[in-house]
Amino acid sequence: MKRSIPLAIVMVGGILFIIQYFIPHQHSQTLFDYYTEWAPIVGAFALVLGVGSLSRLHSHKIKRKAKNWQYSYAVLIPLFLVPFFALIMPESLGGGMLETMGGARTTQGVFDFTYMNIQVPIQATMFSLLAFYIASAAFRAFRAKSALATVLLLAAIIVMLGQVPIGELLGKWFPKVGLWILRYPNLGAKRAIALGVGFGMLATQLKIIFGVERNWLGGAGE
Amino acid sequence: MTETIGLWVAALFTIGIYSFLYKENPLYRLSEHLVVGISTGFGIAVTYAQVLKPKLIEPILSGEPNAWLLFVPAILGILYITRFFPSVGWLSRYPMAFLMGAGMGIGFPLQMKAQVLRQLEASLIPLYETGMSWDIALGNVVMVLGTLAALIYFFFSKPHKGPFFGTGSKIGIWVIMVGFGATFGFTVMGRISLLIGRIQFLLGDWLHIIK
What are phi and psi of B23, to 5 degrees? Predict the structure, then answer.
């Protein structure tokens, strides 16, 4: 009941939908349509689990006055305020983007303001922060210590210079060679990796369907 | 007025994140926590507006034909919440099993097609055709042999010795290194362009030092 039925559901569902792919019948399509309609609904409830865990973690931190507990308010307040403002102003939910009409904003409010002036800049800056760390990583990776490291270094430099105007100034061949590296040896390596990943995923999917891989069951009661 | 305040707030948080380059500080920690809260809040709003409301709540409330069937995914979804109660936590395996089983079944043939068959098909190309320039012909040879060699490198069931597996895996690692170099170069470029974007925001939009 606790483990066998979920494992049976996975096996029956997995086999059924593999067969479904090969039988283009109306009933089989109806089955597929039901799944594609239901899966997002079931998946949406998983968000409750995530939000519940996050809220519990931070409310415990505040209650216990754990280290840096004050910052937990910075998680909890927007966590509930953002959906609240989105609900009372559903028109602003179009991806959080400001809609403009003749230069004037048509949707204004806390939801848009939070998204455009806090969320977007923080996320963009966090990713750009990696430029500094990647520079130091590049320095370590690109030290031509061996022949293989030299190849890595050369490929990276040619590809980078091939993408910027200074590359063309240094040599007309830079963009062409950069593109050639991207199109052929890079594609060969990527394709081999994609095939390896593909075979790995297929094997894992079969292992899950046939109950060999059971880690997804977690530890909630044996 | 709102736009000016917005600019200042965005600039404050941009500087807050960059301040981490010196050391961890309260402004950075505040920004870090805010982004978690806001993005999760945004996730809740979007999930409700784009999934639960149009696909579950509205069809049930408007009494669409067969809407009662939607109680099945709703009940399955609610079972996730049992995870919070250890005595009945095992019930949360049912919605997971529903998503995993059917998801794996649907994914298997698609994965086989996209990740394996299409890749193999794209690798089986004529190396040379009349009128083909030398760089394309050379590229085709490098790409086809490179794919094969890199696959040999990732094949660990046989020792990498001998003319086929030994030489193949050696060529494979060279091809992989070129691929990694190209990818790394691309990633560096992407991050640098993001950095340029933020600096343009600070010096242009906010301080008006540059145009």
Answer: -165, 170
